[in-house]
Amino acid sequence: MRVDIWSDVVCPWCWIGKRRLQRGIALLGTDAPPIDLHWHPYQLDPEADATPVPLREAYARKFGGARRTAELLAGTSGPRAPRACRSISTAGRCA
After folding, report:
1. Is there a contact between 76 and 46 (Cβ–Cβ < 8 Å)?
2. How far apart are CA 29 and CA 95, in angstroms?
3. pLDDT per residue over 9-38, tens digit each?
4. Measured between alpha carbons, how far is 72 from 13 in angstroms, rounded to an integer?
């Protein structure tokens, strides 16, 4: 079975989705049909340039303020969460 996935490398929710997909595929076991994953790039913010922006600042602008940012980031904490970035850029670099 072919599965096409569009994902942004700087998106923590894309990372969580990737991990959940991998876990789901593993749970299918050896009786599952072969799965052919095809990854495609996607930019959540195509207007961003390569200049790093502090992560919380970028999220606050995108999601409606510091309070909402804190709520969203609280849902991605824990041992399996993506490593925290101080800043992000369109090149997908964490700083």
Report:
1. no
2. 37
3. 878 888 899 999 999 999 999 888 999 999
4. 10
CA neighbor of 54 nearest in space, from 75, 76, 85, 77: 85
Half-sphere exposure for 88 (CA within 13 Å, toward CB): 19
Amino acid at 56: R
CA distances from 37 to 29, 71, 73, 78 (A): 16, 32, 28, 27
Domain 2-88 has CATH 3.40.30.10: yes
Give dist(CA 15, CA 5) in Å, integer: 12
Beta bridge partners of 3: 37
Residue 5 identity: I
pTM above 0.85, yes or no: no
